[in-house]
């Protein structure tokens, strides 16, 4: 396997030298423009789907916050792991362009499958707005294949470890680097061609450079652990806030747009103003120092998120714990009732009114008694960890429980069926399904035959209402409104500081990190993507195992972990020595005789041009860095759309 990968490497090396000049437009190959259009569509699709993914899990599949967060981050982790497979396929099998085409088709199939899984009506037989078969929708979501691919370069790494273990002891001389123990993989006794041995030397040198950078990458997943939560925890936080900005309404998933807008603003400001100013002040603000500061900014962002969460918690209802139940009683009977709930709850509820607030009960099974003549008694089993409303209809013997959601519900106290705007017909003493409505003023028309009346109501974010319709509804236009949950009062604008801090951290950490990777490793960026994947896996683990009682406490925990890791990273960065991979590779090529004979004859001329080559290399590095920034801004522009 090692000989195969070295042979492939050699062919790729020769191909680069024999590359034909392709047609260009504006200084770029024409193929670049096709790739740009393809990436626009891919990024538009990815960011658009990811922005609403956690809300799809939470409000469509009805998963709790922790499960929705875990699955979201599992998805993002896979997104950043699979490019490793794509890189291998492109480099050693299909080539870049066929890989883009074929995997774009797979991508499109996945998006179509995802879209189909969001259609309620596929399994919603009774048209109540909720799927009847969640298993079908979940299976659509996770129809994918797994990948296991062993890198050929690992063989050299494993051989080096094995060879070092075999030659342990003081009688064997030490080597400069533990990867040097892979030199014996192919030696003169195996009759391997000298060019293969030379390419192996080059490959070992490149592995050393990559491993040096990968070691420095070890703390980096902690940054992504925080950063990618803006699409999960922060979006869920926004669902408990108000997005009414007066001139426009901002939805919880749309607040993420603040990040790309700030990216497009901060990248040029940092690049043209902040960093040059720091340099003029004589401070050595190296790439690794920038990354450390970026991690600290991300930690501050989560402290800001924790402060916002504390304010939100002050306004949220007192929801029951997993071992408790909550109950409210609604009376649409035509008389005032004394309601006794075992063992010691006593309520006086007037006709077409409700109990003042939800009662918290620490037991699931209750008995409800009404002071009618004769006395009516009925047993109920409550849902643990949930809120329910006990409806006492015009015939009290038929009282029943309804689970409460963040939406609206109508209770028909009239003597016949009622038709209400956008709802099915409601039978007497029955309730409608809880129905989600968007923020703002909504008009409703109640109709029975030729009789009708209408009313309007302005709905706030996160509120829940029950409307009691009396038997005199058409003669008096009267109705009773019960507010089950108050609308969100903390404004989404309070999230802007945390988005500003996390975006500043992203500019200093992510952009600089990519520049550092390009300058310190031989153009192998799969390891950088892996840091993002590992960070999302850590969030998944914490969400499933942490189970902190308060969300603000989880934010503080994440911030504290990142501060600790940033200190470790700063120590590692202090002892890091910067290298020039191109110079090292050129030296090894020269030592191993990998340069063409024609160039060897022109050694003197090449030495004279060394200074010019160095300048060319500097220009190339600047072009690579500029490309990283342009690509990031391009992605953020698509994200904003």
UniProtKB/TrEMBL annotation:
<dbReference type="GO" id="GO:0006857">
    <property type="term" value="P:oligopeptide transport"/>
</dbReference>
<dbReference type="InterPro" id="IPR000109">
    <property type="entry name" value="POT_fam"/>
</dbReference>
<feature type="transmembrane region" description="Helical">
    <location>
        <begin position="526"/>
        <end position="543"/>
    </location>
</feature>
<dbReference type="GO" id="GO:0015293">
    <property type="term" value="F:symporter activity"/>
</dbReference>
<keyword id="KW-0813">Transport</keyword>
<dbReference type="GO" id="GO:0016020">
    <property type="term" value="C:membrane"/>
</dbReference>
<feature type="transmembrane region" description="Helical">
    <location>
        <begin position="555"/>
        <end position="579"/>
    </location>
</feature>
<keyword id="KW-0472">Membrane</keyword>
<comment type="similarity">
    <text>Belongs to the major facilitator superfamily. Proton-dependent oligopeptide transporter (POT/PTR) (TC 2.A.17) family.</text>
</comment>
<dbReference type="InterPro" id="IPR018456">
    <property type="entry name" value="PTR2_symporter_CS"/>
</dbReference>
<dbReference type="InterPro" id="IPR036259">
    <property type="entry name" value="MFS_trans_sf"/>
</dbReference>
<keyword id="KW-0769">Symport</keyword>
<feature type="transmembrane region" description="Helical">
    <location>
        <begin position="67"/>
        <end position="88"/>
    </location>
</feature>
<keyword id="KW-0812">Transmembrane</keyword>
<feature type="transmembrane region" description="Helical">
    <location>
        <begin position="291"/>
        <end position="310"/>
    </location>
</feature>
<keyword id="KW-0653">Protein transport</keyword>
<feature type="region of interest" description="Disordered">
    <location>
        <begin position="595"/>
        <end position="620"/>
    </location>
</feature>
<dbReference type="Pfam" id="PF00854">
    <property type="entry name" value="PTR2"/>
</dbReference>
<protein>
    <submittedName>
        <fullName>Solute carrier family 15 member 1a</fullName>
    </submittedName>
</protein>
<keyword id="KW-0571">Peptide transport</keyword>
<feature type="transmembrane region" description="Helical">
    <location>
        <begin position="209"/>
        <end position="227"/>
    </location>
</feature>
<keyword id="KW-1133">Transmembrane helix</keyword>
<feature type="transmembrane region" description="Helical">
    <location>
        <begin position="100"/>
        <end position="122"/>
    </location>
</feature>
<feature type="transmembrane region" description="Helical">
    <location>
        <begin position="142"/>
        <end position="161"/>
    </location>
</feature>
